[in-house]
Amino acid sequence: MILTDTHTHLYAEEFSSDRDLLISEAIEKGVQRFFLPNIDSSSVDGMNALTKKYPNNCFPMMGLHPCSVKENWKDELALVEKLSGEQKFAGVGEIGIDLYWDKTFVKEQEEVFRRQIKLANQHKLPIIIHSRESFEEIYNILLDSKKGSPCGIFHCFTGNADQAGRAIDLGFYLGIGGVVTFKNSGLDKTLAEIDLQHIVLETDAPYLAPVPFRGKRNQPAYIVKVAEKIALIKNITIEEVANITTENSRKIFAI
Ligand code: NI
Question: What is the distance between the alpha carbons of residues 52 and 96, in angstroms, rounded to a whole number?
Answer without folding.
Answer: 27
